[in-house]
């Protein structure tokens, strides 16, 4: 595989607070050290702290003595190293096989259903047999017009099966891909400076940063150098980094660059929080934030500060501690926070210190640079950059879905009005930077902005987020994207609001739509209607907050039939968000 250097660029309700989290004092995004009880991990016996993996022939594998009770995915990794599909060109031979022949053998069937996720390829066996979703690596959400055009050319050939989505990790996912095309697509990605490597399963996901990095007049630090370095480390400069591809579970990382916390540090496994120490810039660290069907937790302070030079060493040390010591049984209990709970934060920290280059990790600094009282700014619309005479324009991409022609038009606009650059956001929108102020008026009259991707969408549409849903995803219980748009449009006709209300939809408890951070969240489920018949429904969440006062929302009402969602949302908006019924507003006029 060709490579290239990266350019600098009944059970508890889903995600209710666990007993462990209820006993833990909630921590804000301030990573200043706080008093804590003696950690149970300190003094843990040597057997528990023995690394569970070892290096063999350049790959990291689970030791035989730790293989009892492991989950099926771990068995698939042991049976055949997933990274060999890329690093030893296994994809070339696999792509030549027919789906019929692939399904005849367990090893090749697991190749397409599981191992190809290490290459960012997800087989849509349930709804699009023989077709794949491909997830990229796009550090900081920064992409170019050339990259966008290439992705458009890939999905265009698949007709109605081809489309693309902006994800909740500032990333592209393209759909409709067929296996025989994969080797050429991978080469084409490399040719425009992209990769899909290590973007699925038990890997480090796309490094998230400030979507306004380098152009924001109020930014704390430009996050792009750090997210690029992280991506280079994670993927081994597109060549693969097998030292961190056998984690117990997926792992998310972000670098904070603004007071707005656009990056959502509280839901990442590792968040770099800007802080000064002894006159030097660096980062305090938060660890352990995650979502899962059975448990959701906000990140907590590691009581650690690193200089910019140690951004990669500490990331490596944390990943190695998680790789070496994380359990590999029940997949619902293998995220990094479970290991932190077991060892205690000090016990976990000591394991990180052991893996630092000089076994030194400074304690956190009290000089956090993120303002605690800061009203989160809206990046949609036209806003001045720090560069005099230039502005950026934030475009609303309804539920993140785009077609090939849309991507070509976005690329054209980025070239014609800006610098050929586009920024993806975690709210599934797109920012076009570096537009001369004299050209803003002409840009705003572009048909694409008038008819498709508005810089000034209605208030309820503005914060709408939706996962893939069961149109393509086999795990989703309900359809989400079209439903989210339809419900919001119906609600807009019934009520008037004076401020944005963020509504998130997710098709299943895996919560890719991040319903717990929304003002109002909808999680797909099966329920019963008023006649006792089974139907599609949602569990409704309320109270999620983002920014300096971040907080995960809680379940408000379970098992609401989808047909009853509109009146429920109207009621919530009126009672809790100050909305006014349209009929009453008209009567008062």
TrEMBL record:
Its cofactor is [4Fe-4S] cluster; siroheme. Its EC number is 1.7.7.1. Residues 16-29 have a biased composition (Polar residues). The keyword 4Fe-4S applies. GO terms for molecular function: 4 iron, 4 sulfur cluster binding; ferredoxin-nitrite reductase activity; metal ion binding. Pfam families: NIR_SIR (PF01077), NIR_SIR_ferr (PF03460). Pathway: Nitrogen metabolism; nitrate reduction (assimilation). One of its GO terms (biological process) is nitrate assimilation. Keywords: 4Fe-4S, Heme, Iron, Iron-sulfur, Metal-binding, Nitrate assimilation, Oxidoreductase. The lineage of its organism: Eukaryota, Viridiplantae, Streptophyta, Embryophyta, Tracheophyta. It catalyses: 6 oxidized [2Fe-2S]-[ferredoxin] + NH4(+) + 2 H2O = nitrite + 6 reduced [2Fe-2S]-[ferredoxin] + 8 H(+). Residues 125-190, 383-447 form the Nitrite/Sulfite reductase ferredoxin-like domain. Residues 1-46 are annotated as: Disordered. Belongs to the nitrite and sulfite reductase 4Fe-4S domain family. It comes from Eucalyptus globulus. Residues 201-359, 464-573 form the Nitrite/sulphite reductase 4Fe-4S domain. This is Ferredoxin--nitrite reductase, chloroplastic. It comes from the Eukaryota.
């Amino acid at each position: 595989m060709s490579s290239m250097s990266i350019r600098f660029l009944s059970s508890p309700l889903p995600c209710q607070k666990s007993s462990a989290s209820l006993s833990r004092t909630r921590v804000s995004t301030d990573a200043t050290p706080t008093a804590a009880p003696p950690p149970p991990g300190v003094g843990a016996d040597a057997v528990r702290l023995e690394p569970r993996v070892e290096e063999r022939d350049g790959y990291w594998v689970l030791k035989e003595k730790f293989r009892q009770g492991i989950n099926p995915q771990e068995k698939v990794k042991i049976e055949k190293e997933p990274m060999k599909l890329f690093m030893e060109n296994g994809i070339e031979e696999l792509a030549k096989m027919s789906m019929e022949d692939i399904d005849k053998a367990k090893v090749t069937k697991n190749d397409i259903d599981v191992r190809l996720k290490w290459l960012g390829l997800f087989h849509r066996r349930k709804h699009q047999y023989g077709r794949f979703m491909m997830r990229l690596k796009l550090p900081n959400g920064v992409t170019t017009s050339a990259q966008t055009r290439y992705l458009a050319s890939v999905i265009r050939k698949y007709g109605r099966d081809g489309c693309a989505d902006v994800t909740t990790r500032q990333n592209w996912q393209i759909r409709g891909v067929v296996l025989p095309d994969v080797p050429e697509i991978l080469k084409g990605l490399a040719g425009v400076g992209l990769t899909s490597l290590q973007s699925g399963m038990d890997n480090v996901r796309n490094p998230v940063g400030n979507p306004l990095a380098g152009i924001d007049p109020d930014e704390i630090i430009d996050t792009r150098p750090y997210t690029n370095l992280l991506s280079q480390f994670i993927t081994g400069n597109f060549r693969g980094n097998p030292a961190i591809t056998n984690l117990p579970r997926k792992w998310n990382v972000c670098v904070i660059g603004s007071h707005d916390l656009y990056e959502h540090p509280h839901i990442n496994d590792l968040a770099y929080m800007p802080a000064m120490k002894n006159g030097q810039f660096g980062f305090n660290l938060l660890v352990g934030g995650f979502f899962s069907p059975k448990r959701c937790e906000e990140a907590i302070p590691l009581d650690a500060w690193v200089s910019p030079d140690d951004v990669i060493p500490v990331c490596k040390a944390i990943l190695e501690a998680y790789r070496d010591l994380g359990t590999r049984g029940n997949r619902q209990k293998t995220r990094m926070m479970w290991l932190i709970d077991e060892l205690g934060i000090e016990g976990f920290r000591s394991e990180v210190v052991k893996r630092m280059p000089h076994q030194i990790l400074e304690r956190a600094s009290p000089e956090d640079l993120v303002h605690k009282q800061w009203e989160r700014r809206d990046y949609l619309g036209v806003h001045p950059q720090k560069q005099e005479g230039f502005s950026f324009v934030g475009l609303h991409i309804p539920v993140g879905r785009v077609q090939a022609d849309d991507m070509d038009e976005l690329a054209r606009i980025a070239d014609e009005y800006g610098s050929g650059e586009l920024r993806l956001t975690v709210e599934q929108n797109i920012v076009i930077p570096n537009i001369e102020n004299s050209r803003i008026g002409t840009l705003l009259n572009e048909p694409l902005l008038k008819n498709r991707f508005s810089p000034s969408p209605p208030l309820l549409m503005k914060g709408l987020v939706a996962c893939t849903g069961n149109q393509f995803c086999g795990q989703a219980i309900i359809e989400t994207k079209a439903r989210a748009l339809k419900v919001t449009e119906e609600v807009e006709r019934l009520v008037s609001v004076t401020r944005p209300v963020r509504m998130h939809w997710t098709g299943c408890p895996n919560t890719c739509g991040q319903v717990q951070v929304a003002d109002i969240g909808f999680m797909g489920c099966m329920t019963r209607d008023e006649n006792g018949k089974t139907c599609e429904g949602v569990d409704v969440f309320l109270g999620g907050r983002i920014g300096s006062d971040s907080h995960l929302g809680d379940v408000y009402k379970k098992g609401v039939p989808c047909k009853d969602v509109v009146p429920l949302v109207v009621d919530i908006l009126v009672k809790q968000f100050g909305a006014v019924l349209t009929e009453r507003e008209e009567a008062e006029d």
